[in-house]
Amino acid sequence: MKALLCREFGPISNLAIADVVEPNPGPQQVVIEVHSAALNFPDALIVQGLYQIKPPLPFSPGAELAGIVKTVGSEVKHLRPGDRVLAVTGHGGLAQACLADADQCMHLPDTLDFDTGAALVLTYGTSFHALRHCANLQAGETLLVLGASGGVGIAAIELAKAMGARVIAAASTTEKLAVCKEVGADELINYETEKLKERVMALTHNLGADVVYDAVGGKHSETALRSTGWRGRFLVVGFASGEIPRIPLNLALLSERQILGVFWHTAALRDPKSHLANMQILQAWLAEGKIRPRITERLPLDKAADAIARIAQRKTIGKIVINP
Ligand SMILES: NC(=O)c1ccc[n+]([C@@H]2O[C@H](COP(=O)([O-])OP(=O)(O)OC[C@H]3O[C@@H](n4cnc5c(N)ncnc54)[C@H](OP(=O)(O)O)[C@@H]3O)[C@@H](O)[C@H]2O)c1
User: Fold this and answer.
1) What is the crossing angle of helices 272-287 and 114-128, to 10°?
2) How does pLDDT run across 122-134, given as a tens digit for each residue?
3) How many A from CA of 79 to the centre of ligand 1?
């Protein structure tokens, strides 16, 4: 079968299509014929050896996918060959077939196509866990989203609107902000050309935002924390800018602000019941049209390395789906 292969950690340009042997499932695993694999920022990190998790070499990137079960391990009870599923595997999705732990797979409803299924779990799962469980976002509160036109950012906008919050979207270009508006953001800030804190204060009658969703890190994080009000909550989601900011802790003390870490995949593994409940709510909201993954590009496997490079270069909007 064909797979996009990372033979050693290094530049994204080293990724290459290769013929590899199809995997065999262990007792509690399945092999999935991959129809759609959605790309995420961590794909760019994992192949460079910059992610928290370093898979054994060689491996294929691709953390989330949807497809059809081909073979099942001897101890797997709830899945059969022919089942339509979606799965979060961490890596391996950018191949024609992928090994997955059976308990990391969920049935894909007939109403959901493979591309949408693949693009749903990681970004919406992360943002829902962050907003609901970590920040306890309430209807009527104001959420500031940094990097709002990216994968998790768009999900955060849509989910916060579905939860009844007011959303201020911050991004770096007019084109990116237009997408934020289209998916439901109430207010827009270009954080490369405008003063972030002044704009947030003006938009909140000087009260500040209630919650900040920061998947970017770098130079805007401290300003965004300073833009929260009394008991504001600041979600540490990621560092797409490549810079992990150092925050003076007096900023937490002064307004009783809370700085909250978000680590969705580990949280989902540690609390599978909450994860399943979240996924059921997300699937219901998808069916009701409250959320809709913004798939901006659908590409074949041999275009996946270029797409991962463009994610790392800040050149993409929304989700890219690969069809191996
Ligand atoms: N904590 C968790 O559980 C969890 C789960 C999933 C993802 N994440 C993390 O969340 C972050 C965003 O993921 P994503 O899939 O949404 O990524 P994405 O689609 O690439 O979006 C990231 C956004 O960050 C902004 N950015 C600023 N500087 C950048 C730079 N130097 N390179 C690339 N982007 C830059 C860009 O927006 P502007 O150009 O508008 O600034 C971009 O739209 C990543 O760090 C990822 O690892 C964390």
Assistant:
1) 120
2) 999 999 999 999 9
3) 33
